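User: Could you go from structure to sequence for me? I need the amino acid at each position, not a summary. Structure tokens:
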């Protein structure tokens, strides 16, 4: 066992364009798993979000086609800076900063042939073209466009003969597909099509010394369960050493595979960044006095209740909140919300999730409407509906009533 204050170590075993295999040491199991989940669900990419079907005489129904289009990975390099969420944009509906238009226009005129409609036939409409979605809105001088790579928003592998295109539909003579698509920035917490990863997995304790796994076997578990490759990295268990029930895993064998929208390296970096941001917001939220004159104070008061209040729902302001927080913050001040979520009243969980799926009154984590964690319910300001932790009325952590796009979902 390593000492618990040892520095985390990352050792890259294999790095390819779309996959990376590395060993992560001296971190907690919970950290390794948070890292995995953040890479899967919290890194923004671009994906087709709206489809306008002009003609569809193929054998597949419109919905089917729309779904298949949504699942096509689009080049999303530096998506964080190169594109805005529509909800954060200054435009009315969509513009070149928050939307990319793609068109597909294919018809088969040849007899006795089956034509394949593939992702390579999707054409990105240049934003400066008159009449395109990108041009009708005012230009507010954003820097996003300058940060885009040349093929930003294009289907992956479009210009690469070594990458086989993605089949959308097959057509025969007389059949046609003509659609207009709007691609948007999003994260996989809202829809899996925005995930940059096709798979993220990790293994720890390949010898099962910690006994976190119970093997099913006929006669002999060791003979019937061959060891993984990672077992070579660790000492085999010795029969003369007693079982250490206090032992914790410290070494994690991680494998990240992307769908091509982002490179593996970018996914890992962005994943760490995102996790850091989340933890920074948590620390900020637990600070006794939130900074003045910023977005954290917006949305005061109403609704209340996500994580606030005492477990018994009492509103006695003489009591401290459950988590040892100093007494009253400004009543109703929403200590949790990071600035970018503060705008939308219906904010989903923790700022990073899209507001439009946040649901009406959903007071998730970091919703501007939520009362601060553990703070007293603040007299009458945030009373009423404010249920405590574990109360069925609460909309927060672990509550069955939670419908928002929060941490517990998906
Ligand atoms: Zn816009």
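Assistant: Here is the amino acid at each position, in order:
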């Amino acid at each position: 066992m390593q000492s618990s204050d040892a520095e985390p170590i990352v050792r890259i075993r294999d790095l390819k364009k779309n996959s990376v295999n590395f060993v992560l040491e001296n971190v907690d199991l919970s950290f390794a798993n948070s890292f995995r989940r953040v890479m899967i669900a919290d890194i923004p990419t671009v994906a087709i979000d709206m489809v306008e079907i002009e003609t569809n005489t193929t054998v597949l129904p419109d919905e089917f086609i729309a779904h298949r289009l949504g699942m096509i990975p689009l080049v999303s390099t530096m998506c964080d800076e190169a594109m805005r969420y529509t909800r954060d944009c200054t435009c009315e509906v969509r513009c070149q900063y928050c939307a990319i238009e793609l068109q597909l226009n294919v018809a088969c005129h040849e007899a006795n042939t089956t034509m394949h409609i593939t992702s390579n036939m999707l054409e990105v409409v240049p934003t400066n073209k008159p009449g395109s979605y990108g041009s009708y809105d005012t230009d507010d001088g954003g820097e996003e466009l300058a940060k885009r790579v040349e093929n930003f928003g294009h289907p992956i592998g479009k210009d690469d003969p070594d990458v086989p295109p993605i089949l959308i539909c097959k057509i025969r003579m007389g059949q046609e597909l003509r659609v207009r698509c709007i691609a948007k920035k999003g994260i996989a917490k809202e829809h899996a099509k925005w995930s940059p990863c096709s798979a993220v997995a990790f293994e720890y304790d390949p010898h099962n010394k910690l006994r976190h796994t119970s093997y099913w076997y006929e006669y002999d578990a060791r003979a019937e369960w061959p060891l993984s490759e990672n077992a070579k990295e660790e000492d085999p268990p010795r029969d003369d050493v007693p079982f250490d029930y206090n032992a914790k895993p410290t070494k994690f064998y991680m494998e990240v595979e992307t769908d091509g929208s982002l490179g593996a390296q970018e996914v890992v970096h962005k994943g760490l960044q995102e996790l850091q941001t989340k933890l920074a917001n948590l620390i900020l939220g637990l600070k006794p006095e939130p900074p003045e004159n910023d977005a954290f104070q917006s949305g005061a008061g109403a609704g209340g209740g996500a994580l606030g209040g005492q477990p018994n729902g009492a509103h006695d302001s003489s009591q401290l909140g459950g988590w040892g927080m100093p007494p009253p913050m400004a009543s109703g001040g929403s200590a949790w919300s990071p600035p970018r979520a503060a705008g939308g009243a219906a904010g989903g969980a923790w700022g990073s999730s899209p507001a439009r799926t946040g649901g009406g009154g959903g007071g998730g984590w970091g919703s501007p409407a939520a009362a601060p964690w553990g703070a007293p319910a603040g007299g009458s300001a945030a009373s009423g509906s404010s249920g405590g932790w574990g109360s069925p009325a609460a909309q927060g952590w672990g509550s069955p009533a939670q419908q928002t796009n929060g941490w517990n979902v998906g």
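One structural detail worth keeping in mind: Residues 297-410 have pLDDT under 50 and may be disordered.
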